[in-house]
């Protein structure tokens, strides 16, 4: 009760205020572990909550309990980066609460504050709104509605059904003593939920109350019956209490009140309040029994007087104002005055006793104060020594700060754990291989279990004879057939094989050893700590540790770790988080990562997401050349994944590489196109399309830098039929001359007769000088025929037949552009001038 006196004194003038003192005591009492299970702590908190109610300061207590409640539910728990590997799911437990069981009949004031706090949490989390919506709209059971609400709201902990506030208030109303001042308010809280009409909240018309939808099962219907019986008992109690008389002397023996709960033995509540509580309990009974409230076909103003239509309307309108007229405030003040007088009396007695024994004691002297304290302590039993400490080894080694910045120490530390995990995967792979081998052997052996052997038996067939003649004897029939015979040796072999399979299965299904779990958690903790410290302090030393750890993990990825699902998931998660933080976008690691992928192509899917060649612009072309050199039909999928990481547009726009670098890249792409061949195979078609796309982008960049290279390389490759015609098509389309002359129309015609896209592309790329390259093409074709014996004998068509259509389109376009350009030039010359157009257009 010292806390209540402390609050009283702090609320006096020049005091610190009741709020600060209440918060202080709540924090002190709730700072210990499992404080809500300690009776002494709950006793003090109950008096503290009673004082908070008296001073209207419940909010400050609720605020502190609210935060602790959220922590208990896991709303502020730290989660590891790789929690997908080690996740503990505890199902079927009741949601944590500071009230043990369904209700608390001893600390009602404390229960009042806790339930109000949990009601706020239920509203803030929108759990009540969603559950009521499912009950009203989809007509689900409370259990189904709760599961659907948890799925929709994604709550950290699945709330249990009995922790819904409508049931909590119901159980607390049953447990609250009949004479407790909070009894009417607790019932009011229950009926605010039971008679709530949520229809308009979901766009539905005003309908019945929600209460009965929560009480559908047999257990909940029985709970309603118990509540009705409890209200009748409480009404009878207050009816009897209203007959009691206040007496002057407590010594008569006639002053015993019927109230056996929280009232002081020398205090009687006014009969008028008892009568009001009797009437209120009878009203509550009617509200529980009335079925029409649940159906929504009741006109409240027309109800009889005993239904208390005024308060019923307030309840159904969800008005939260407490009915303080039913609270025995006089009793609360009386009990507080008693506690204050007792405290003052104890203080006075203690001061008098100490003054008498000490005589003229100097209370201001610290030395005498120490002597008094030690003397008083000697009056009590000597405290027992503390229990001896048992050294407990941490289940997982602690991550040292030095290992996070030391590359050598970190790798040595992690290799120990990774060796354990890899060995576990190899053991699992051996079990799998053994299981497959045993199953195959069983399948091969089963057909040998039974064999057919030729047998012969003699059957004796007797006839019944005719009416005149008797049977002369049984007929002897010899039957030959192949009978089934079991091979006992094979049967024993199968029995032994199946026994081995059972033993192997039992061994393989055992939980992993503690060492494996410890190694996995230790690696996860190390990576989590490394990334957390790197986000705060991105030091180069920490980055080097992260990079080294990434490639160390990659070293440990093998066929066995990929075949075993747990280790596959673990290594993939580790590599993913390290790759995102330390590898992706890191200039120095592009070449090393590419080399790792090319050396072990089965890692491409795992590592390619973190390959960012644009981060190393100086090595961009070199990296591209390595990928081109790796191209083959067997590696087409790897090459395709790597090519998708080369962002050519970004490299050209940001880096603005010199002509020499671009020419190197162009020649490398041309080499790749040649490797794809005249008719690319289906397996190599995807990388071929990307090569074509990169070729056209480079051709269009700063045109006409690569126009002559394009003609030279394509004519050279086409002469040997190394190039696909699709390369010509893509290039001509990029130059704006992909369509035939007939489709494009003449420059002399209106602009509306030509495609704007083709016209703009052609005018933007091919100038008059480039159009005149028709002469270069003619000369090149002429030289080919003169320099090559095959071309001289069989003509150009023998090799150029696949490209005739594209070359024809290109020459038609160039010829027309050349003629149109000359016509415009002649039109600008003075009239009467004579000039002969010279040019080789053959």
UniProtKB/TrEMBL annotation:
Residues 122-328 form the Epg5-like TPR domain. The keyword NAD does not apply. Keywords: Autophagy. Residues 248-267 are annotated as: Disordered. GO terms for biological process: autophagosome maturation. It comes from the Eukaryota. Pfam families: TPR_Epg5, TPR_Epg5_2. The keyword Membrane does not apply. Residues 586-834 form the Epg5-like central TPR repeats domain. GO terms for cellular component: cytoplasm. PANTHER family: ECTOPIC P GRANULES PROTEIN 5 HOMOLOG (PTHR31139). Belongs to the EPG5 family. This is Ectopic P-granules 5 autophagy tethering factor. It comes from Dromaius novaehollandiae. The lineage of its organism: Eukaryota, Metazoa, Chordata, Craniata, Vertebrata.
């Amino acid at each position: 009760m010292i806390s209540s006196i402390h609050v009283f004194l702090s609320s006096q003038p020049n005091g610190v205020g009741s709020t600060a003192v209440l918060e202080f005591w709540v924090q002190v009492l709730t700072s210990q572990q499992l404080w809500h299970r300690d009776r002494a702590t709950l006793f003090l908190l109950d008096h503290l909550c009673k004082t908070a109610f008296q001073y209207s300061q419940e909010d400050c207590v609720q605020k502190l309990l609210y935060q602790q409640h959220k922590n208990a539910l896991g709303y502020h728990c730290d989660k590891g980066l790789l929690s997908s590997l080690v996740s503990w799911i505890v199902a079927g437990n009741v949601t944590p609460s500071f009230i043990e069981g369904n209700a608390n009949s001893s600390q009602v004031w404390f229960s009042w504050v806790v339930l109000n706090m949990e009601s706020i949490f239920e509203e803030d989390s929108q759990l009540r709104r969603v559950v009521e919506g499912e009950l009203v709209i989809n007509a689900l059971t409370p259990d189904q509605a709760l599961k659907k609400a948890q799925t929709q709201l994604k709550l950290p902990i699945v709330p249990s059904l009995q922790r819904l506030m409508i049931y909590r208030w119901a159980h607390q109303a049953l447990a609250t003593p009949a004479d407790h001042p909070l009894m009417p308010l607790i019932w009011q809280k229950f009926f605010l939920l039971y008679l709530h009409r949520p229809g308009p909240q979901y766009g539905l018309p005003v309908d019945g109350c929600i209460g009965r939808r929560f009480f559908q099962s047999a257990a909940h219907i029985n709970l309603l019956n118990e509540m009705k019986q409890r209200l009748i008992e409480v009404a009878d109690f207050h009816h009897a209490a209203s007959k009691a008389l206040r007496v002057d002397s407590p010594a008569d023996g006639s002053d015993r009140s019927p109230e056996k709960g929280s009232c002081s033995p020398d205090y009687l509540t006014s009969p008028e309040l008892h009568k009001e509580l009797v009437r209120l309990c009878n009203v509550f009974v009617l509200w529980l029994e009335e079925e029409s409230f649940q159906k929504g076909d009741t006109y409240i103003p027309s109800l009889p007087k005993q239904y208390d239509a005024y308060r019923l309307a307030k309840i159904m309108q969800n008005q939260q104002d407490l009915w303080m007229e039913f609270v025995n405030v006089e009793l609360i003040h009386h009990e507080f005055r008693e506690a204050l007088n007792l405290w003052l009396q104890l203080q006075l007695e203690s001061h008098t006793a100490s003054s008498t024994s000490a005589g003229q004691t100097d209370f201001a002297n610290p030395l005498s104060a120490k002597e008094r304290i030690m003397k008083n302590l000697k009056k009590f039993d000597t405290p027992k020594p503390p229990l001896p400490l048992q050294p407990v080894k941490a289940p997982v080694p602690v991550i040292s700060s030095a290992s996070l910045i030391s590359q050598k120490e970190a790798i040595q530390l992690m290799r120990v754990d990774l060796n354990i995990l890899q060995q576990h995967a190899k053991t699992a792979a051996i079990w799998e291989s053994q299981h497959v081998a045993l199953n195959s052997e069983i399948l091969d052996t089963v057909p040998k279990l039974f064999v057919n052997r030729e047998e012969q038996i003699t059957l004796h067939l007797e006839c019944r004879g005719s009416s005149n003649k008797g049977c002369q004897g049984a007929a002897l029939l010899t039957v030959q057939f192949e009978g089934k015979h079991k091979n006992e040796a094979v049967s024993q072999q199968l029995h032994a094989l199946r026994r081995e399979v059972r033993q192997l299965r039992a061994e393989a299904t055992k939980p992993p050893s503690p060492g494996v779990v410890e190694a996995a958690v230790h690696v996860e903790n190390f990576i989590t700590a490394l990334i957390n410290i790197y986000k705060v302090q991105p030091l180069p030393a920490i980055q080097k540790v992260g990079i080294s750890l990434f490639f160390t993990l990659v070293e440990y990825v093998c066929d066995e770790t990929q075949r075993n699902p747990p280790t596959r998931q673990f290594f993939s998660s580790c590599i993913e988080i390290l790759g995102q933080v330390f590898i992706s976008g890191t200039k120095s690691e592009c070449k090393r990562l590419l080399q790792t992928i090319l050396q072990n192509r089965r890692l491409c899917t795992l590592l390619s997401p973190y390959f960012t060649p644009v981060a190393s612009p100086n090595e961009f072309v070199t990296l591209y050349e390595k990928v081109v050199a790796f191209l083959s039909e067997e590696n087409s999928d790897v090459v395709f994944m790597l090519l998708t990481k080369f962002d050519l547009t970004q490299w050209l726009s940001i880096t603005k590489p010199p002509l020499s670098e671009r020419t190197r890249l162009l020649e490398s792409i041309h080499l790749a196109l040649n490797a794809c061949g005249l008719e690319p195979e289906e397996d190599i078609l995807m990388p071929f399309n990307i090569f074509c796309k990169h070729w056209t982008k480079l051709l269009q960049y700063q045109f006409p830098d690569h126009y002559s290279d394009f003609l030279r390389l394509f004519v050279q490759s086409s002469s040997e039929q190394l190039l696909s015609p699709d390369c010509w098509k893509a290039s001509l389309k990029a130059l704006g001359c992909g369509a035939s002359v007939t489709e494009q129309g003449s420059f002399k015609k209106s602009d509306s007769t030509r495609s704007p896209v083709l016209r703009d592309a052609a005018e933007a790329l091919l100038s008059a000088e480039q159009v005149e390259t028709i002469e270069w093409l003619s000369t090149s074709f002429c030289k080919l025929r003169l320099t090559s014996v095959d071309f001289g004998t069989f003509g150009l068509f023998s090799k150029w037949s696949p490209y005739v259509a594209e070359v024809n389109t290109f020459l038609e376009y160039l010829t027309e552009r050349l003629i149109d350009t000359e016509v415009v030039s002649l039109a600008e010359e003075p009239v009467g001038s004579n000039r002969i157009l010279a040019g080789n257009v053959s």
